[in-house]
Each structure stands twice: as structure tokens, then as C-alpha cells.
Amino acid sequence: MDNLSRPVVLVSEVGPRDGLQSIKSVMPTAAKLRWISALAAAGLKEIEVGSFVPARLLPQMADIREVVAHALTIPGLHVAVLAPNLRGSQSAFEAGVHKLTLPVSVTNEHSMANIRKTTEQMIEEVRAIVALRNAQFPGVQIEAGVSVAFGCTIAGTVSDDQTMRMCLAMAECGVDEVGLSDTSGYANPAQVRRLFRRLQTELGSKAGGAHFHNTRGQGLANVVAALEAGVATIDASQAGLGGCPYAPGATGNIVTEDLAFLLEAMGYDTGIDIDALVAARSILAEALPSEALYGHVQDAGLPKGFRYADGRAPSAPQPEGCLLGVAQ
């Protein structure tokens, strides 16, 4: 398959932010830096390395400036962070990040629980953040991550029109892209396909990527639906770490390793070395021994005869097949 016929999908790793902020353990800074380096070495081109929030609220992010400084030394890595307000955004800009994600909830209920602002207040906050970027930090990309876009555990059902109203408001504020987040793990493939197609129709080039949680086991099915709708950026977290602490019951991002296998097996070029990615899990296991690590590829391995979308062979030996019991 030549380069022109291979669609490219960007896997944006959010484990160092969404993963770590959602667990009780605090990952030592030295281990966090090794982990980010290992993720980048495995071929991940964009990593959300943390969030600019008060350490008293999220002690897991107390070392964010040191983490950003380290990530910026990694050649070719697009360094992303999250910030919930103007103060955090200014700190992120000053730290030299490449991309800033702003969490903007569709429902007032989730917005108040998550960032203590109404949706209308957050729209004005985004407007001020974009103005600051335009005036002083024009090189930084701003993404609005529209939370609870498919449903909210606090408010309940979210209509397509509700979600699109917030997406259009974000575009009008001047953000560079608007992504949809299944914060509560409510989405189903039909809904995903429908909403992303509408997002692209109404926002054009500002239509962004997808952020799914696997709370109800629909994560990778929703990825396939997003791909069918033309989405080219998918968030994931190594070992499925994370989830929104203000969305009750909504834990578990989709697993980066499983996502990379899905994409490559379907012919999408990610540039990721899955064996190297799986090896990076050892840093998590060592630094966070009390945390559950999820996923399937690390247990089953890559299928015999597997090739990446660009024709590469896996770097680690492949399994010999089913040798025990009676295979069906």
C-alpha cells in the first residue's frame, strides 16, 4: 500500500493528564518524565502531558511546569495540556506549550461540578483566553474539548442540538478546533457517526477529534463510527487510565495500545510501534503498583502475520497460535 492510499490518524495520548488526574496515586515526577519519553519513542506524536490547575485541587499535576519543560525537549513531540480558566491558560502559554485544550461542558450541571462556572461563564472565559492567545501567544493552538457531548451522568440526556449550540459558540469564540468528548461513557456508534458528521457540516475545518471513555464497553465501536464520519484524531490513555472525577461512574479511557492495533489492522497509519508502546506499560506498573492497568493487546500479543499499515513487521516475536485446548 503506497503513502497516498494510507489514511493517517493521529493518536493523541492523554494518559499523563486525564489518566493521572483521575487516580488517587501521585506518580513520581521522575517516573512521569520517563513515561512520557517512552510514549514518544513508541511513535506517539501528540501527548497531553498534564493540566495547569491548582496543586491543592489536583496534587497529581503539581509538577506540570517541570513536565512541560521536559516534554518540550523531545524532538518532534506536539506538547498539549489542559487548562480550565484564564489563569491556567496564561501559565500554559508562558510555559511554551504547543496546544491548549479547554474543557467546556454542554450542561450547566457538569460545568459547575467540573470547573465551578456556568456554561455561559465558560463561554466568556474562552473568549478571554483566545484574546490573550491572539495578542501575546499567536503560535499556540487552542482546542475546545466539549465535555458530556453525548450524555451527562448528572443532567441526563443531552440532545444533538444542545451539543451543537456549544460547539458553534466555541467556534465563534475563535478556537482553532472543537472536539467531542464522551465524558460519561454514554455514546453509541450511531450517535457518534451522526454528531461528528453534523460537526463537520456546521464547523468545517474547525471540526476536531474524538475523546471516548469505555465505561460501558463501547469505546472502540465508537472509534470505528468516528472514523466512518471522517474523524482523524482520536484520544486515548495508556492502559485505560483515567476518567472524569466529576462524572460519577465514568472511569476508563479507551486503551491506547488497543486503539493503535485497531487502527493499524484497519489500514490506518499511526506511526506507532505497538510493541514499544506495550513495553512502556512497565513504567506505569512500577510507579503505580496499586492501580489497575487495562487492555487486551499486551496479553494476547499481535496476531501472527500482522503487519502495520505501512508494511512494517512487528519488532517483537509473534505468537505461535492456539496450542492449548480445543480451538473453535
Would you mind describing this structure in some detail?
This protein is α/β, with parallel strands linked by helices and 328 residues long. The protein has one domain: TIM Barrel (Alpha-Beta Barrel). It is built from 13 helices and 8 strands. Strands 7-6-5-4-3-2-1-8 form an 8-stranded parallel β-sheet. Helix 2 packs parallel to helix 3, helix 4 packs parallel to helix 6 and helix 7 packs parallel to helix 8. It is globular and about 55 Å long.
Using brief descriptors, characterize the structure shown.
alpha/beta; 328 residues; TIM Barrel; 8-stranded parallel sheet
- Main beta sheet strand tally, sense and closure: 8 strands, parallel
Strand order of the largest sheet: 7-6-5-4-3-2-1-8
Cα separation of the termini: 32 Å
What would CATH call the class?
Alpha Beta
Whole-number average pLDDT?
93
Structural class: alpha/beta
CATH topology: TIM Barrel
Instruction: Provide the domain count.
Output: 1
The parts where pLDDT drops under 50 for at least 5 residues are none
User: Strand share of the residues?
Assistant: 5-15%
Count of helical stretches: 13
Q: CATH homologous superfamily, by name?
A: Aldolase class I
Instruction: Characterize the overall form.
Output: globular
- Give me the CATH architecture, please: Alpha-Beta Barrel
Oligomeric nature of the chains: single chain
- From the alpha-carbon coordinates, what is the Rg to the nearest angstrom? 19 Å
Q: What percent of the residues sit in helical stretches (DSSP H or I)? A: 25-40%
- The overall strand count is 8
Task: List SSEs in N-to-C order.
Answer: EHHEHEHEHHEHEHEHEHHHH
